Amino acid sequence: MQTAPSAKRTRPLIIGVDTGKTAALASLDLSGETVRISSQRYGGLEWFVDEIKRSGTPVVIASDKRRATETVSKLATIFDAVLFTPQYDISVKKKMPLVNAPQVENLHGRDALSAAKAAYNSYRNKLSQAERIAKDNRYDDVEGLKAMVIRKYSIHDVINRAKSGRRMVR
User: Fold this and answer.
1) CA angle 79, 81, 84 (to 5 degrees)
2) Burial annotation 16-28 (CB, 10 A radius, 16+ → b, else e)
3) Of 37, 57, 97, 130, which sits 20 to 30 A from 1 (CA to CA)?
4) CA–CA separation, 30 vs 37, rounded Å?
5) Backbone torsion region of residue 48, taken as left when φ is above 0, otherwise alpha when ψ lies between -120 and 50, otherwise beta
6) Going by DSSP bridges, is the β-strand pair 12-18/22-29 parallel, antiparallel, or unpaired?
7) Confidence (pTM)
8) What is the per-residue burial (b if ≥16 Cβ within 10 Å, else e) of 44-73?
């Protein structure tokens, strides 16, 4: 099997963020599975950075609001992650089907998880395609491939560069 060289060996994640008096974040892997949900009263930028580092490497930082808060934008910049904002603010009614998780303890966790799930859903088809093509090409760094696809790299370019021993530069 072919493996793309990777400087980072931590799990790539989609991070949903809810800012406010009570801050919350939700981490999903690139298969859409919930990794972690946490919240902190008066959690600021430092708290978010520490919590994210404990979970993995963010590929996407997501908001449930059309206009990302300053904190959400800063997190995307700090981690060199793609910033996801929905076309419209995600209403409570639309959050409910996105968040069917017993581990959500409060509304802030629900909002963070709905942001992460909305981001995942926006990439789901392309990520599934990347999985299929990786399997067909016996390419085993599927998570790394998915992370590069989210960053707008061509699936075939990533695989072909790995096979030729050339590294993709982000």
Assistant:
1) 135
2) bbbbeebbbbbbb
3) 57
4) 16
5) alpha
6) antiparallel
7) 0.86
8) eeebbeebbeebbbbbbbbbbbeebeebbe
DSSP 24: E
Q: How far apart are CA 41 and CA 155, in angstroms?
A: 41
CA–CA separation, 17 and 162 (whole Å): 33
Whole-angstrom Cα Rg for the chain: 16
* The two three-digit tokens of residue 152, written as one number: 């707008």
SS3 assignment, position 102: coil
CB 34 within 8 A of CB 28: yes
Please, what are the domains in the chain?
12-123 (3.30.420.40)
pLDDT in tens, the chain (170 residues): 333 333 344 899 999 999 989 999 999 999 999 998 999 998 899 999 999 999 899 999 999 999 999 999 999 999 999 999 999 987 777 766 666 655 666 788 888 999 999 999 999 999 999 999 999 998 889 999 999 999 999 999 888 888 887 665 55
